[in-house]
Structures are given as C-alpha cells and as structure tokens.
Amino acid sequence: MKTPTTPATLPSTKLVARSLMFLLEVPHLLVAVAMILFALDALLCIGNQLRPSSVRHTLPIVMTVALLRAVLRAWLRPGYLRALDELRRGAEPTVKAFEGLDRLGAAFACHLLGDVIVATSLVVGALPGLAAMLFAANRGYDALVGPALALAALMSFSLYLYAWLGVRYAEHAVAIEGLGPFAALGRAWNLAEGRRARVAWVTLVTSTLELAAVAWGVACFGVGLLLTVPLARLVGDHTHVALFAELRATSLRPRAHAGEARAAMRRAPA
Fold it and tell me: Model confidence over 152-204: pLDDT tens digits?
C-alpha cells in the first residue's frame, strides 16, 4: 500500500505554495471569517491611533474594542482552525466556522496566558542588561552603558522570540485537540521543542506574503486591503495548520490527549 505524502516531507516554501492552491477551493464562509478577523484588527489599530488629547474619552472605547476583539477571536478562531484542518486532510468540514463557542473560554484564557508568558519573557530577558547598565552608570563607566543597553535589547528580544515560538500553536491545540488552556500551552511548548527554527522560518514566509498583500492592497487605492490581507492570512493560517499537523506527527514526546478524544466525540455526527 502506498504511503501518503506527509507535511513533514515538504519544505517551508512548498508548504506555503500548497496553501496558496488551497485558495482555489476555499469555502466562502472561511473567507468571510478571515475578513471579520481582519476587520477586528483594523478597528483596534484605528482605536490605537486616536489623538492623545482625547485619551480620557477614547481610552474606554479602545479598551472595549480590544476586549470585544479578544472575545470574538476566541469564538471564531477555534471553529475556523478546525475547519481548515479538516480541509487540509481533504475532508468536507463537519465543523462550521462559527461553531467555536464551546471553546471560547479555553481559547480566551489560552490567549491571555500566552500573552502573559511572552510579556514576562520580554521583561526577564532585559533584566541582566539593564542591571549592567545601571551598574555602569552608577560607577561612572559611561563607555559600558551603550553595550549594556544593547545587551538588554538583544537578550530581551531573544527570550521573547523563544517564548513566542514556544506558545505559537497553543490556540491550535485548543481548537484541534480540544485541550484546556494550560494543557494547550504545555502541548505547544513540547511540539516546538527542537523545531523552533522550522516554526520561525514558516512564520517568516507567511508574514512576508502578508506584507506583499498589504502592499498590493495599498496599490489598489487601499480598498484592496479588505480582500488581499484576509486572503493572505487565510493562506498563512492554512499553512500553520499544516505545520501543526506535521509537528504532531513528528512529535518528540507523543502522547494521547483526553481532550482530543473529547473534541472528536463532539465533532462526530450523532
């Protein structure tokens, strides 16, 4: 019996190319969800650009929009990712893009905890360099202040990137494997073990594609952004769902997950 080709055999660029071909047959509903998610990001970006002179009045609005965006993403993303995973496997989606309500709490908590982990790594990474900078400044070693500040920035970014790549697929574990927030973060960390370079490279390729989509949309008098960016993000999300499947198939620490079994039972027809 012929063994099917697995995502692990594909280079990063071919993984993205396969997702580009996926656009030819993507259901319209998933395009609509991608456009809604982009609109939420655009609203938050517009809110952050409000004039400082009106912060007293606009800050509650910005915070409300940010909270609404987080809740709607936690509702939409699980069903959206599950549908992409089923399409990746060549199956007709049994999960609708708007059926992620059962995962809303777990997805919201997972996103919040992931942000806390990444932000903490950013601060912790900067501490040694900042301590060295303060020591040099107090002792009058002015020539060492600049290198110490550069060390703080380098260590902060390095630890931030290490942590971010470690929790990159936590939401996928929540959506596709049906795990809770803490289990999903641990699962994502284990999957990234020894393969952060692979995840970083694929992320770089998909981010470059999204930047190209932004440039194309701006060239279309800005209106094109409403279509080019959601489509580019759809390609990126499909690519990362495929990479998540690859990481699961080649995991250094394979183990059964009760949450995944529960999720399969929920998705199974009655």
Answer: 899 999 999 999 999 999 999 999 999 999 999 999 999 999 999 999 999 99
Q: Count other Cβ atoms within 10 Å, centred on residue 172.
A: 28
Return d(Cα 149, Cα 256) in angstroms, integer.
45
- Cβ contact 80:97 at 8 Å: yes
CA separation for the pair 36, 104 (Å, rounded): 17
User: 199: which residues sit within 8 A by CB, 6+ positions away?
Assistant: 165, 168, 169, 192, 243, 247
Rounded CA separation 168/191 (Å): 10
Which tokens in the block code for residue 233? 């993000």
Rg (CA), the chain: 21
Structure tokens at 63: 């915070």
Name the residue among 209, 108, 124, 131 with its Cα closest to residue 162.
124
Tokens 């952060």 found at: 196
Q: Write down the pTM of the prediction.
A: 0.80
Q: Are 31 and 234 in contact (CB under 8 A)?
A: yes
Residue keyed to tokens 């008098």: 221
Start-end of H helices in the chain: 12-22, 28-48, 55-88, 104-138, 145-166, 170-176, 181-192, 196-219, 225-249, 258-267
- By the 8 A CB rule, do 75 and 96 touch? no
Which two three-digit tokens encode residue 157? 């970014």
How far is the C-alpha of 22 from the C-alpha of 227, rounded, in Å?
16
Q: DSSP states of 153-187 as a string?
A: HHHHHHHHHHHHHHSTTHHHHHHHS---HHHHHHH
